[in-house]
């Protein structure tokens, strides 16, 4: 379990602010399941989902920097949750999959020119004697705004995107799994984006980001 508890350059679980927030959040929790549940909701709802953030350098993914910025997209939120979990003594790692979101907004559909999200990032952590997967990506406000099913976590069972919403509309399809990682494979992610979205489009995305 050691690689899944240690800090890295990006997953800086030893940063004072990360350690303090983790300690504050899990204070008084009765067991590891309650600790994980509290950390999940902390990241899901207090770090709003935001596609329009820098994404192309390692410093854009550093957990402490994401905490300071206060928003991020799926991979950045997953990195933050892994860092907080490790700071709380919960073995945690990153999981990646390609997904299709059938309920994306027109604005995002125009930006992406596809509903395929390459290397969607989420979290796998060891709770008791098993690994459990959770997706803290979409906060409550974003889910309500776009009509997404809100992912809830009971502290024990997988909490990932459902295939359909309450009205039986298609929501998320997991197309391809890339496995689990103890650290952020940013080079692998960016290479896959270049292949799927194209270098020119990614350069245009960069131009539209806030400084």
Which helices and strands appear, and what pairs or packs with what?
Elements: H1 16-26, H2 32-46, H3 63-69, H4 74-87, E1 92-101, H5 106-112, E2 116-127, E3 130-134, H6 140-146, E4 172-181, H7 186-197, H8 199-207
Antiparallel strand pairs: 1-2, 1-4, 2-3
Helix pairs in contact: 1-4, 2-4, 3-4, 7-8
Task: Give a written overview of the molecule.
This protein has 211 residues and is α+β, with helices and mostly antiparallel strands. The chain has a single domain (2-207), classed as Roll (C8orf32 fold), CATH 3.10.620.30. The chain contains eight helices and four strands. It has helices at residues 16-26, 32-46, 63-69, 74-87, 106-112, 140-146, 186-197, 199-207, and strands at 92-101, 116-127, 130-134, 172-181. It has a four-stranded antiparallel sheet. α1 (16-26) crosses α4 (74-87) and α7 (186-197) crosses α8 (199-207). The radius of gyration is 16 Å and the shape is globular. It starts with 15 loop residues before the first helix and ends with a helix.
The largest sheet, given as strand count, sense and whether it forms a barrel, is: 4 strands, antiparallel
- CATH topology: the name is C8orf32 fold
Number of helices: 8
Instruction: Report strand %.
Output: 15-25%
**Strand arrangement, major sheet:** 3-2-1-4
pLDDT < 50 stretches = none
Q: Which whole number gives the mean pLDDT?
A: 95
Encode the helix/strand succession as letters: HHHHEHEEHEHH
**Count of folded domains:** 1
User: Into which percent range does the helicity of residues fall?
Assistant: 25-40%
Radius of gyration: 16 Å
CATH architecture tag? Roll
What is the count of β-strands?
4
CATH class: Alpha Beta
CA-based shape: globular
Q: What is the SS-derived class?
A: alpha+beta
Distance between the termini: 38 Å
């Amino acid at each position: 379990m050691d690689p899944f508890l240690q800090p890295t350059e990006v997953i800086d679980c030893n940063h004072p602010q990360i350690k303090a927030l983790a300690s504050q959040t899990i204070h008084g929790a009765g067991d590891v399941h309650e600790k994980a549940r509290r950390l999940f909701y902390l990241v899901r709802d207090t770090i709003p989902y935001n596609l329009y953030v820098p994404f192309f350098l390692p410093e854009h993914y550093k957990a402490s920097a994401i905490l300071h910025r206060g928003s991020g997209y799926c991979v950045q939120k997953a990195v933050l949750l892994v860092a907080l979990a490790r700071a709380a003594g919960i073995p945690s790692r990153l999981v990646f999959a390609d997904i299709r979101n059938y309920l994306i907004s027109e604005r995002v559909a125009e930006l992406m020119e596809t509903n395929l999200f390459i290397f969607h990032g989420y979290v796998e952590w060891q709770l008791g004697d098993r690994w459990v997967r959770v997706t803290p990506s979409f906060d409550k406000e974003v889910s309500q705004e776009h009509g997404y099913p809100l992912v809830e976590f009971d502290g024990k069972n997988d909490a990932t995107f459902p295939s359909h919403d309450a009205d039986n509309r298609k929501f998320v399809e997991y197309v391809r799994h890339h496995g689990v990682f103890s650290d952020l494979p940013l080079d692998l992610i960016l290479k896959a984006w270049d292949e799927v979205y194209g270098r020119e489009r990614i350069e245009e995305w960069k131009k539209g980001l806030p400084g």
